[in-house]
Design a protein that fits this description.
Distance between the termini: 74 Å
Domain Peptidase C1A papain C-terminal: 112-334
Domain Cathepsin propeptide inhibitor: 28-88
Family: Belongs to the peptidase C1 family.
GO molecular function, one term: cysteine-type peptidase activity
Largest sheet: 7 strands, mixed
InterPro entries: Papain-like_cys_pep_sf (IPR038765), Peptidase_C1A (IPR013128), Peptidase_C1A_C (IPR000668), Peptidase_C1A_papain-like (IPR039417), Prot_inhib_I29 (IPR013201)
Number of helices: 10
Number of domains: 2
CATH superfamily of the largest domain: Cysteine proteinases
Structural class: alpha+beta
Helix content: 25-40%
Strand content: 5-15%
CATH topology of the largest domain: Cathepsin B, Chain A
Shape: globular
Oligomer: single chain
């Protein structure tokens, strides 16, 4: 009897990989075409097909809960929907921080407004970047975007050029540019060695799986100079609100290892109290905060680097709560 049961289980498992007929297969093929996906083997493609259907069903279940007001955010199929959650977490390993910091004390700020959005309230046009799925480079994209916004506020240029994350990956990555690097290394590099060049002069190359060779300056005197940077104590969301309200974009280290973050689409994201997998690092730029009447929740507005097809045109609103502080390894550039 045991052999018969085991045989049945194995056959059922095999059948699980043979599900991809009809609409499931058509949906997967459309997904592959939309995101220009390629897979090294037929087996890898079958796994991707399986997890695409699994993750699509997860999206459907979450959104059904949202329709009943049982969750405060919605999900959508995106560039990560053909992999397992543990694979997604592995793409974004936990950052390793330098042991020495050159941070200076934060400047004094005024009391915060009740709600504020640096980008929207100042009427800024900021390009949302896409780090791709090959290199864990949010540390560089977040650092570059924070410097870009900081410089735009100081100069009054509300439509700034995008600055190069690739320069930071290549020149400040120190061999970990696509794995466990942290924004402090980007700020140390910029305060000690170099201007940050526009991405049109030093193009971002998200298809690369490893950092490249650091290229020489594309032209003399073109770029943004960083004089110093500051940090905030972990858990100090009050200080975070104060600095953001004073037009200072702050980079935070956020754990993305949940289905909700991986496939976030809209609404106010509330992370689970116990993530389903090991902690990872995705660096976000906190650009605002406010109150959402639809969910009756306070939120932080954060700029990510997964492209405009993820989240709310590339942004995510994360619940703002004393029990779930977002200020973790927070760092920001000074003018």
């Amino acid at each position: 009897m045991l052999k018969l049961v085991l045989c049945f289980v194995l056959l059922a498992a095999g059948a699980g990989w043979a599900f991809n007929h009809g609409q499931d297969l058509a949906d997967f093929e459309a997904y592959v075409a939309k995101y220009s996906k390629t897979y090294p083997t037929a087996s890898a493609r079958s796994f991707a097909n399986y997890y695409f259907v699994y993750n699509r069903n997860q999206v459907t279940q979450n959104n059904a809960q949202a329709d009943r007001n049982r969750t405060t955010y919605r999900e959508a199929v995106n560039q990560f929907s053909d992999i397992r959650l543990v694979q997604f977490a592995a793409l974004l390993p936990k950052a390793v921080y330098p042991t020495v910091s050159n941070a200076v004390p934060p400047v004094a700020t005024q009391a915060p407004a009740a709600e504020y959005d640096i980008v929207a309230d100042l009427g800024m046009t900021i390009t949302v970047e896409d780090q791709g799925v090959n290199c864990s480079s949010s540390w560089a994209y977040a650092a570059a975007k924070a410097v870009e916004i900081m410089n735009a506020v100081g100069s009054g240029n509300l439509s700034p050029q995008s600055l190069s994350a690739q320069q930071l990956i290549d020149c400040a990555g120190m061999g970990a540019g696509c794995s466990t690097q942290a924004p402090q290394s980007a700020f140390d590099y910029l305060t000690q060695y170099s201007l940050l060049y526009p991405s049109e002069d030093y193009p971002n190359t998200p298809a690369l799986k490893q950092q490249g060779m650091c290229l020489p300056a594309p032209s003399v005197g073109v770029g943004v100079q960083l004089t110093s940077y500051s940090v905030l104590a972990d858990g100090d969301d009050t200080a975070l609100m104060r600095y953001v309200s004073n037009d200072i974009p702050v980079v935070v280290d956020y754990n993305p290892a949940t289905f909700g973050f991986m496939q976030y689409s809209s609404g106010v994201y509330q992370p689970p109290t116990r993530p389903a997998t090991a902690a990872s690092s995705q660096f976000l730029v906190v650009v605002g905060y406010g109150f959402d009447a639809a969910t009756n929740l306070n939120y932080w507005k954060c700029l990510n680097s997964f492209g405009t097809g993820w989240g709310e045109q590339g942004y995510i609103r994360i619940v703002r709560s004393a029990s779930q502080p977002i200020t973790k390894n927070a760092i920001f550039p000074n003018s």
